[in-house]
Design brief:
202 residues, alpha/beta, 6-stranded mixed beta sheet, 6 strands, globular
Length: 202
Amino acid sequence: MTYDVVVLIEREMSEGDARRVAALHARREDTVDYHLLVSSHPESGFGGPMALLGSTFADVAGLTGSASVVGSATVASARVSPPATVDRAQSRTQRGTQRGTLREPQSGTPTATLADPAVDLASVIEHSSRRLRAASGYPVHVSITHGEVLLALMQMVKTTACQEVVVVAWPETAAAFVCSDWTTKARRILKVPRVRILEHDT
């Protein structure tokens, strides 16, 4: 049996990011398939996890996916297919506990060298998929969205029949998700048992 996980990222995953995502599923006995979702325009008004804060599920509930919403790109380091519980970013007051269970030693990859999807999308795809595959030992499928990221997330959850969504975002984005109780809404509308929020290494 396969446990499918959609991972939405705001920028290139560091080694620490990949290890923390992989650690979430390290004790599972079934095979894990990761479906990495990357926005090609994370800084625009309708791309990237931050944009989810300005989008409501009602805004896109009546829309249907099209070929332009999610596109696939083949990379050498990963197989490709078309694509809450709050962990480390649970709250500022609970951070110490979360760091003890999820925080890995500081990654050897400085944040300043990590690629921005808006500038170097190919590096984001290649490096993130390679690191997640190395950390987990499981297949990583990569999809790119060029449109509304929330619609793309909904479409990917449906097409992969995933059991979990993990959003890896900047600390301020993650904190805003927690404050707005976005994960609870996401679980209900996406119809997935678990939605997790993790912070990118900074």
